[in-house]
Specification:
The chain is an alpha+beta fold. It contains eight helices and 16 strands.
Length: 302
C-alpha cells in the first residue's frame, strides 16, 4: 500500500524514515507509515499497525496537552472519503484519490517554521545519558549527583537538547549553545514548555502503569508563536517502561522496537545498509508492543 502513496499522490513535501508529508496548500498532511528503522536504516519490512499507533497516540497527547502548549493538529483523518472531499484536488492532481490506507494513520496539521532543535527531557538515566554519566558524571555536560545507578529516577528532570539533523544522528548540544543559536528568551521558552508537558504526561502515564523515562519534542513558529509540531509522546519519540517491572540498577524492557534491535544484534548485522528482513515472530512481537503502549495510555484498543 505504501507504493500507492508514492505513485498516486503529488506534492510530496518531505519523506522521513517513517512519515510522509504532503503539501495541502495552507496546511500539511502527515502520514505515519508502518515503516520501521533501526540503527539509521529503514528495514525492508513494515510493522503492522505501527503507523496507526503513532498517529493516534500523537493525536491523543495533542488533545491532552493543548491546555499547556498549543500544537499544529487541525484534524485526524479517520476517513479517506472526507480527505478526498476536502483536499483531493490539491494533492491528487484531479485524477487520483487518497487510498483508504491513509485513514487512522494520518493527520492534517498547520504549517509552521520548524525550530531546528530537538527538545529532549530525561526523567531517568538510561541509554546514551547513562553511558556519559558512567564516563564523566554528567549528562550533556550537566553535573549529576554521584552514585546514580542505571535507570534511576533523577532528582529532577533535566533538559538535554540536540541539533535536528536532516540525515544521520542528531548531535547533543549544551543549553548555553542552544541559547546562542535561538536567543536566551526563545530557548528558555522551549525549555519551559518541554518540561511542563513532560511532567504532566509522566504523572498521567504513571497512573496507567507506564513510566515515561525520557522523550523528545519539536516546536515550530506560526506568526512568531511557538507551537508543538511533529509527533508527541509516542514509542518512537519516547522511552516507555512498564512500571510494574521497573527496577533501578538495570536496563528496562520498553514498549517500542526493542525486539527489532535485539534480533538485529543477535543476527550479527553489521548495521550497514541494506538491513535484513525480520522474521514473522519479531514483527508480531513489535506490533503487540506498540499496541500495548496505546492500550495502557488511552484505555482503548486500537
Amino acid at each position: 500500500m505504501e507504493l500507492l502513496l508514492e505513485t498516486n499522490l503529488s506534492n510530496l513535501y518531505y519523506r522521513g524514515k517513517v512519515r510522509d508529508t504532503y503539501d495541502l496548500g495552507d496546511s500539511l498532511l502527515i502520514i505515519a507509515t508502518d515503516r520501521i528503522s533501526a540503527f539509521d536504516s529503514v528495514l525492508p519490512c513494515g510493522i503492522p499497525d505501527k503507523g496507526a499507533v503513532l498517529n493516534q497516540l500523537s493525536a491523543f497527547w495533542f488533545a491532552k496537552t493543548a491546555h499547556l502548549v498549543p500544537n499544529h493538529l487541525i484534524a485526524v483523518v479517520d476517513d479517506a472519503t472526507w480527505l478526498n472531499n476536502v483536499y483531493g484536488e490539491k494533492v491528487c492532481a484531479g485524477y487520483y484519490s487518497f487510498p483508504d490506507y491513509v485513514a487512522r494513520r494520518s493527520m492534517v496539521v498547520r504549517k509552521a517554521e520548524r525550530i531546528d532543535i530537538e527538545c529532549v527531557v530525561r526523567g531517568y538515566i538510561s541509554g546514551a545519558a547513562w553511558a556519559e554519566y558512567q564516563e564523566k558524571g554528567t549528562v550533556s555536560d550537566i553535573p549529576l549527583p554521584k552514585g546514580l545507578v542505571e535507570s534511576e529516577k533523577l532528582p529532577e528532570p533535566i533538559f538535554t537538547p540536540t541539533t535536528k539533523a536532516e540525515s544521520g544522528h542528531d548531535e547533543p548540544i549544551t543549553i548555553d549553545e542552544m541559547k546562542r543559536l535561538l536567543g536566551r528568551e526563545r530557548a528558555e521558552e522551549l525549555m519551559d514548555k518541554t518540561m511542563r508537558i513532560y511532567r504532566y504526561a509522566h504523572d498521567y502515564a504513571l497512573e496507567r502503569g507506564i513510566i515515561i523515562a525520557d522523550t523528545k519534542m519539536e516546536f515550530g513558529l506560526v506568526n512568531d508563536r511557538v507551537i508543538l509540531i511533529d509527533e508527541l509522546l509516542t514509542p518512537d519519540s519516547s522511552r516507555f517502561w512498564d512500571a510494574s517491572q521497573y527496577q533501578a540498577g538495570r536496563s528496562q524492557p520498553s514498549f517500542d522496537k526493542q525486539p527489532v534491535r535485539d534480533w538485529l544484534i543477535q543476527a550479527g548485522w553489521n548495521k550497514e545498509p541494506p538491513a535484513p528482513m525480520l522474521p514473522e515472530d519479531v514483527i508480531a512481537q513489535t506490533t503487540e508492543r506498540y499496541r500495548e503502549a496505546y492500550r495502557h495510555l488511552t484505555g482503548k484498543e486500537l
